[in-house]
Amino acid sequence: MSGSSRIGGRRVLIIAALATAVVIGFLAAQTLQNAAVYYLPPTEAAKRGIVAGQTVRLGGQILPGTLVYDPATRDLRFTVGDGVSTVKVVGTGAPPGLLREGAGAVVEGTFAADGTFRASQVIAKHDEVYTAPTGSAVPTHQTPAP
Length: 146
Known about the structure:
Blueprint: H1 2-35, H2 42-48, E1 55-62, E2 68-70, E3 75-81, E4 86-92, E5 104-111, E6 117-125
Parallel strand pairs: 4-6
Antiparallel strand pairs: 1-3, 1-5, 2-3, 3-4, 5-6
């Protein structure tokens, strides 16, 4: 009888270990899903019919000639596009250092009734191209020795 109880005990341990692994995997997946930054391109936002006032992230390329920032009023305006649709973005505050025309941007905020996007947060996207510094290049945060 001791042999069959040992086998039954092993089954319980295996089932408990599998259940624990499933719970840990589920919790990890939920954490990663909440931490991921998703955004909609303008065309997708239009197709989904996002209602005015609903918080959403919108992403696209800043169209040339549209980026305007007034430091006195801290008024920031630009247009993002995805090659099919465009959306005018209005925000306040200093633009991120990497924000420039032709570059990607992700904005978080709400659509207004007139179709403009009221940004509460602006994030400049950098390109994925890495260029290694040349041998003689000195990073800007370092100064050469006297």
